[in-house]
């Protein structure tokens, strides 16, 4: 991560991906668990970037 050079990540239409992959109430639990893992990954990424902010001089 420290070698990546980006300052903005845009996540657009995250939920729509899960609507098409998982259909019906029978897959609701699997969808929610996978979505939670994905969001936790984004949170960890944000925490890492925030803990080492880039300061423009």
From TrEMBL:
Q: Which InterPro entries match?
A: P-loop_NTPase (IPR027417), Rad51_C (IPR013632)
Q: Which organism is it from?
A: Phycomyces blakesleeanus (strain ATCC 8743b / DSM 1359 / FGSC 10004 / NBRC 33097 / NRRL 1555)
Q: By what name is this protein known?
A: Rad51-like C-terminal domain-containing protein
Residue ranges occupied by any Rad51-like C-terminal domain in the UniProt entry: 1-48
Record-level GO cellular component terms: condensed nuclear chromosome
The GO molecular function terms of this record are:
ATP-dependent activity, acting on DNA; DNA strand exchange activity; double-stranded DNA binding; single-stranded DNA binding
Question: Cross-referenced Pfam families, in alphabetical order?
Answer: Rad51
Q: Which GO terms of type biological process are on file?
A: chromosome organization involved in meiotic cell cycle; DNA recombinase assembly; DNA strand invasion; mitotic recombination; reciprocal meiotic recombination
